Amino acid sequence: MAGNDWINSYLEAILDVGAGLDDKKSSLLLRERGRFSPTRYFVEEVVSGFDETDLYRSWVRAQATRSPQERNTRLENMCWRIWNLARQKKQLEGELAQRNAKRRLERERGRREAVADMSEDLSEGEKGDAVGDLSAHGDSVRSRLPRINSVDTMEAWANQQKGKKLYIILISLHGLIRGDNMELGRDSDTGGQVKYVVELARALASMPGVYRVDLLTRQVSAPDVDWSYGEPTEMLTTRNSEDFLDEMGESSGAYIVRIPFGPKDKYTPKELLWPHIHEFVDGALNHIIRMSKSLGEQIGGGKPVWPVAIHGHYADAGDSAALLSGALNVPMLFTGHSLGRDKLEQLLKQGRLTRDEINSTYKIMRRIEAEELSIDVSEIVITSTRQEIEEQWRLYDGFDPILERKLRARIRRNESLLEHVIIPPGMEFHHIVPQDGDMDGEIEGNEDHPTSPDPSIWTEIMRFFTNSRKPMILALARPDPKKNITTLVKAFGECRPLRELANLTLIMGNRDGIDEMSSTSASVLLSVLKLIDKYDLYGQVAYPKHHKQSDVPDIYRLAAKTKGVFINPAFIEPFGLTLIEAAAHGLPMVATKNGGPVDIHRVLDNGLLVDPHDQQSIADALLKLVAEKQLWAKCRQNGLKNIHHFSWPEHCRAYLSKIAGCKPRHPQWQKSDDAVNSDSDSPGDSLRDIQDLSLNLRFSLDGERTGGSGNDSSQGSEGNAADKKSKIETAVLAWSRGVGKDTRKVDHNSSSVKFPSLRRRKQIFVIAVDFDTIASLAEATRKIFEAVEKERVDGSIGFILSTSLAISEIRSFLASGGFSPCDFDAFICNSGSDLYYSTPNLEDGPFVIDFYYHSHIEYRWGGEGLRKTLVRWSSSIIDKKAEDVERIVTSAEQLSSDYCYAFAVKKPGSVPPVKELRKVLRIQALRCHAIYCQNGTRINVIPVLASRSQALRYLYVRWGVELANMVVFVGECGDTDYEGLLGGLHKSVILKGVCSSACSQLHANQSYPLSDIMPSESPNVVQAPEESSEIRSSLEQLGCFKS
């Protein structure tokens, strides 16, 4: 507003007064003047519009108004708009300060309580709060990035890996992924992450000791995308694999494996994929089990070769990797790429959208919960930069760098600690030849690299320029507001010396027409075009519409040939892979000082860092590098000299070294001579089942707490151990005597009778309805039995009861409902923390507990320390309104087990929502799964890898029970783990009317609405009234029976 002193004075007066918008005096400024209505303009344009980017447009419109009165009124209202914007920003800053203060207090309380539980294990020095020695990453980037500096070192490391045959799973769900001709920039989902995961898969498969790498993604068979994205499998050509030909095999190498899930024939943005995550997990589980068996036949001596790690990329893949890690009991790794909490903070600061609008648009709360779960489950979180750890990851409840050091004592307790490691992305350099020529002469050829015609993309770019020999300033980014391209154009347009010395090239993805782009991308592109017109930059700025991924190296070469500069002016750059690519081609850089470029610059020392909000700083840095040839040459040389720090082999060496440090985990029963994989009906099958039972199962003769969890091993005596062993032997002998007994109609003389009986069912019906009372559950169970009575009697259908009830309560349910334990093949109890099978020999006890299921889910189980924390939390929940102080939450010892701590709730409405309990536990680094169940009258806290839906996946992995052959019965609402029971390959029947307001309230108090993660239209989900005939019809609709 330079040159308009009265406006500046007016603004200062408004801001100094600080009166509210509803001040009566403000109405005096809003007078009706002819046809122009200042009142309407104020309400529609000022009060409801807070977008800073529109201020300049409003200013131009006001200046162009012919009527002096109308112009003055517009200017007045614009001043009010700025004041209102300033007031809102001040309010947002206050809210941010309150959030930070609350987070700080919660963390300090969590640290105190976490340390209090282990004070006996920590010395005074270990309890200190000093931050200086917390980081395992060192003080300098070079110490944080241990690198291979010689061929001899790499060969020595490679020799150590020989003999290993690792199978690694990578997951990246959204976007369009293929090995060649990647359509980077096609949309916001197909960006740098796509290139990174493909290159990582290739590089890992080329490393010694790695046999196979699978990159799992979504299969897209949509008419608006290329057919290649619908191919189920694509083999990636690996580089340098000729050095390890002796390790090659039938299924070795790197592959893109596309799993079908979500809407068919439709390319779906990542925000809409959340309801279909479970479908992907089930499909991926199918693939991994098949491939593990295949690899076992090839290189495993007949035993399955399980993945050594599952690595999720971005929140959606992290959520999937966590579920797969739990289902298979293998280590998980996670890379966030872009983090939800950081994005939420940035969007709230902008003030353009409310928190509800942000969540509606981006499903941000579901994304944040997925990232929190990834922290809970991951053994290693891989980051690109220190800034990502210090400024982004520390926003999460599950990560506190100060608490990390205080919990080192847990390592002595054989517990696994989450580790954040910095491993910058790598790059292939062997094919890159730095450009030594310039526009005044051709490059001299040699025998290895003869001269060749100029690439077509050079012509496409240079046609924009009046003088194509000037140095080129190159920006390579999609048209996204956070990439800050408009500020770059302004800096270039307003700096005449820079315009005289250089050209500007903007590679902004691919486009056919602006109208066909997303609204956000179109807005950025239109702003760029308007700025080009405003500053008359025709002949000085190139912005080609199309380029192929294979053209990108040629674009870098062209910029280097002109002695140009690469710039990344993004507001925040998580890493900045393009900076490394540019340096490898001999281009100095100008980059944002926010994020990864700081670490990259510290290693490469090949350019300048700038404040992305400071337009003049950007112009000065570009001008300095372009004008000072000696500085340009020094930066170029430094980049080429240090670029080896970011090669793929070194990245993979660090990556594989970290994986080697993880405690090996895989399905434990494979250690025994198991008959799971045998499909034969030989008489030996039953004997092998009995042998397997003796190793893997324990009898539970009553409904009390089961032992053997390992939490209280120090309290167990040798006598107790001998007694338990005797019980197991007795149980096995009893089982062997009655192995063919079953209350249903089966051939008792058939050798196909195996344990457990669910292995021989054609279909499995899972009753997972969360009723208020046992009587209601019994009534619904009878109606489901009636609907399939014929199939139930002939034994083709088996039943599983999946519930939050303890085993003692299930005994009461069976007795009161008139059911036999053998009416069910299995019982998933305590919200998925215990798994029992029914036995035909009722004399020795009706239930057998799967001991190996406990070993499958015990990862990071907090044991006694967790129990103490929960008891302390429950004592703090009181009813302050009551006359006498009354505890609302009390420990239910009789309903608890070694892997489930149960609490009774007297007044569900007075208990904090489940998200608050999860937050309390995460802040103290307690990794578990808190579930509000039975209409909020009970709280079950179980291992983080346990749930009712995960128990079904365990049955598939353990016994080969196909998920597609399962039908899950649920109500219209349920416990807070209800969401996991609907998605997936299994079919679901929702019983209408089976719901309560209390259940609905449980989900209303979660971090995100249930609608964000429920599949709205799925052929595998039907609704039916709670009547046997209607249930039968719904099953026919699902294709379970012929109508």
From TrEMBL:
SUPFAM superfamilies: UDP-Glycosyltransferase/glycogen phosphorylase. The keyword Transferase applies. The keyword Transferase applies. Keywords: Glycosyltransferase, Transferase. Residues 167-390 form the Sucrose synthase first GT-B domain. Its EC number is 2.4.1.14. Residues 777-990 form the Sucrose phosphatase-like domain. InterPro entries: Glyco_trans_1 (IPR001296), HAD_sf (IPR023214), SPP-like_dom (IPR006380), SPS (IPR044161), SPS_C (IPR035659), SPS_pln (IPR012819), Sucrose_synth_GT-B1 (IPR000368). It catalyses: beta-D-fructose 6-phosphate + UDP-alpha-D-glucose = sucrose 6(F)-phosphate + UDP + H(+). Pfam families: Glycos_transf_1 (PF00534), GT-B_Sucrose_synth (PF00862), S6PP (PF05116). Pathway: Glycan biosynthesis; sucrose biosynthesis; sucrose from D-fructose 6-phosphate and UDP-alpha-D-glucose: step 1/2. Residues 96-137, 666-687, 701-725 are annotated as: Disordered. GO terms for molecular function: sucrose-phosphate synthase activity. Residues 103-115 have a biased composition (Basic and acidic residues). Residues 466-640 form the Glycosyl transferase family domain. GO terms for biological process: sucrose biosynthetic process. It comes from the Eukaryota. Plays a role in photosynthetic sucrose synthesis by catalyzing the rate-limiting step of sucrose biosynthesis from UDP-glucose and fructose- 6-phosphate. Involved in the regulation of carbon partitioning in the leaves of plants. May regulate the synthesis of sucrose and therefore play a major role as a limiting factor in the export of photoassimilates out of the leaf. Plays a role for sucrose availability that is essential for plant growth and fiber elongation. Belongs to the glycosyltransferase 1 family. Homodimer or homotetramer. PANTHER family: SUCROSE-PHOSPHATE SYNTHASE 1, SUCROSE-PHOSPHATE SYNTHASE 3-RELATED. This is Sucrose-phosphate synthase.
